[in-house]
Amino acid sequence: MPAADRKEELSANTETEVGRRLRELRASRGFSLRALAERSGFNINTLSLIENGKTSPSVSTLQQLAHSLEIPITAFFESTLAPRRVVYTPNQERPTTQFGSSTMQNLGKDLAGSELQPFIVTLQPGEGHRDPIIVHTGHEFVFGLTGSIEYRIEEKTYPIGPGDALVFESHLPHSWRNSSPQEARFLLILHSPDRHEEPLKRHFIRSLTQKGAFSMKIAVITEDGKTISQHFGRAPYYMVLSVENGQIVEREMREKMGHNQCDHLEEHHHEGEHGHDEDSHGKHVHMAEAIRDCQVLLCGGMGYGAYESIRRLNIQPVVTDQNDIDAAVQDYLNGTLVDHTEKLH
Questions:
Q1: Reduced to 3 states, what is the DSSP secondary structure of residue 233?
Q2: Which of 105-119, 217-231, 325-339 bottoms out in mean pLDDT, i.e. has the lowest?
């Protein structure tokens, strides 16, 4: 079979599989097409095309649908059958999803509920992240197949070419980027004992934001809607900015629940253990309830406990020394905003 025909067949298989899973997941939650359309913002015709395998949804589309269905994005690639002890995936049956101009192929589509997630990633020139901002539990394994990429872990950069391998503890801040003029392919295996962290989303969604090809929401802690507050707990509001194609398209001021509890929290925690117990985590979650649809939270300062609680909600906290909201958001979108974790208390 010619390569072009194989590619078309692979794409068709992927579209059918993802569409079938969307229909199953929607039905299992009791949503009609119209109800899901209202929750997700997509029109009924688009959802129908996806469910019937007539169009291939992007990662950003799947992320928005996953949020609407309150499921991890990986659910679209999992089989409804019970997890199998042996999984064999023929080349033509790998579920493939596009992010930006690049693609990821799921090598373990029937590993439902597994802590292990294997992928082949094809990364186009210029795509990836500038700063090491991905953090999750477990370990990560990278093996170069073709071309070359750069993996940055904390302050050190590791070149990955054909045959090169990298294994590391994925709680270390890390990122990837294809700085070469050629396409690169590599094997990526994510292992995370806490699947609620969704390490897959942390890798691929951030790649899209760097290219400006993804719709997202960024929350900023504030007191006046213009400047960034220096204290997460005490500030009464969130400014939520909707971003499309790298541009701010909408602003919304939201009240932050539970901010009056902050002083009570600080009175009961000594320095070095601020807000790490489950009771404090519950209060932090309550404070973040208004921004559960956001992917990023910018603030001028917060405690260690709040920082970890926000991360556990799959929201990326960034402690910045920027004062102006618009400038900080633009720096984040440009990949130049520094996360000053030394300001955590």
A1: coil
A2: 105-119
Domain 216-343 homologous superfamily, CATH: Dinitrogenase iron-molybdenum cofactor biosynthesis domain (3.30.420.130)
Query: Which tokens sit at 163?
Result: 């045959």
Q: Is the model's pLDDT at 7 over the cut of 70?
A: no
pLDDT of 285-328, one tens digit each?
Answer: 888 888 988 878 999 999 888 888 887 776 888 999 999 999 99
**Is the Cβ–Cβ distance between 147 and 178 less than 8 Å?**
yes
- pLDDT of residue 219 exceeding 90, the answer is yes
- Cα-only R_g, the chain: 21
CA distance 171 to 302: 20
CA dist 56 → 65, 112, 244, 340 (Å)? 13, 22, 20, 39
Count CB-CB contacts under 10 A for residue 299.
26
Distance (Å, whole) CA 67 – CA 61: 10
Tens digit of each residue's pLDDT (9 = 90 or more) over 37-48: 888 888 888 888
pTM of the model: 0.47
* Residue ranges of domains in the chain: 3-211, 216-343
> Can you tell me which residue has the tokens 């400006």?
212
Residue 149's DSSP bridge partners are: 160
Range 3-211 has CATH code 3.30.200.20: no
| SS3 of residue 125 by DSSP | coil
Q: Is 310 helix (H, G, I), strand (E, B) or coil?
A: helix
Instruction: Identify the sign of the CA torsion 152, 158, 161, 167.
Output: negative
